Amino acid sequence: MMAEEGKRVSLRKIAKWLGVPWSSVYYKPRRKSTPLVDRAVEKAIYTLIQRHPRYGYRRITIMLKKKAGLIVNKKKVQRIMQRNGWGVNVRPKGFRPRAGASRSVSSAINERWATDMTHFFCKDSGWCHAIVVIDCWNREIIGYRISKRQNAHQAAGALEDALVHRFAGKKSLAHGTRLRSDNGLIFSSKEFMKLVAAYGLETEYITPYNPEQNGVVERFMRTLKEECIWLQGFDSFSEAKRIIEDWIREYNTERPHQELGYLSPVEYKQKLAA
After folding, report:
1. How many CA atoms lie within 13 A of 21 on its CB side?
2. 184 burial type by CB count under 10 A (0-12 exposed, 13-18 middle, 19+ buried)
């Protein structure tokens, strides 16, 4: 009708009369594409997942910055991992009995250490053993022994490594450090207790059948098995020793810990010392 009357009406007015948003008049839907940077991030995530299949999106986000220099929002990392099915299976929550004794955490360096042992299988040697000493303050492995034998000598060796690492063999500096362990024979043997007494350490033994009371080192052992031992099939003891020792070094220097503000044990120690 308006055309017959010779009136020219702009498209903007027509859109207004019809109640159509002006922005949609010339709208052309854009094809969704994956930017080059997103593909680079996805590739970097895949590389990290291959190396650390038990890491969740938070740790992967931290490792992207550490290893690849990529600063990416953790939600974006989560979306990429979910889209590709790279998520970690979460344990179902439920009731977990708690020990009545004090927890194994610590508020200061060298205040409380903990020690424990786990086992792994090698085709050429059968069952072998890993004994560690951990500082409950920053979760750092400060002494360990990977061996074919499960005995007091190996346990004492792991403890001596920790004492040398933290105190350079100066016995007076170690006085009062608490050492928590289970009731295993190797942790109450003459050789082990002789070293404990020489450095003035205070021993703490958990209640039998209550590993929760030694939670910090128990959590480490579970991580060691999930992220290292259970992912391998060790053909020889020498191979297992090399792989586990490399993993422990990476755990100390690079692996982010939620309890430490997603810093590694060594980074946490350096930050608080600065």
Report:
1. 3
2. middle
pTM: 0.71
Q: Is 130 exposed, middle or buried (0-12, 13-18, 19+ CB in 10 A)?
A: buried
Q: What are the tens digits of pLDDT across the range 126-173?
A: 999 999 999 999 999 999 999 999 899 999 999 999 999 999 979 999
**Two structure tokens written together for 40:** 């680079």
Q: State the pLDDT confidence band at 75, using cuts at 50, 70 and 90.
A: confident
Integer Cα distance of 206 and 223 in angstroms: 21
Angle at 256 between CA 252 and CA 259, to 5 degrees: 100
Least confidently predicted of 93-107, 125-139, 174-188, 244-258: 93-107
Q: What sign does the CA torsion over 211, 158, 226, 249 have? A: positive
Chain segment 169-200, per-residue pLDDT in tens: 799 999 999 999 998 899 999 999 999 999 99
Largest Cα–Cα separation, the chain: 112
Distance CA 264, CA 230 (A): 22
Residues 6+ apart with CB under 8 A from 196: 159, 179, 203
- State the average pLDDT over residues 93-121: 74
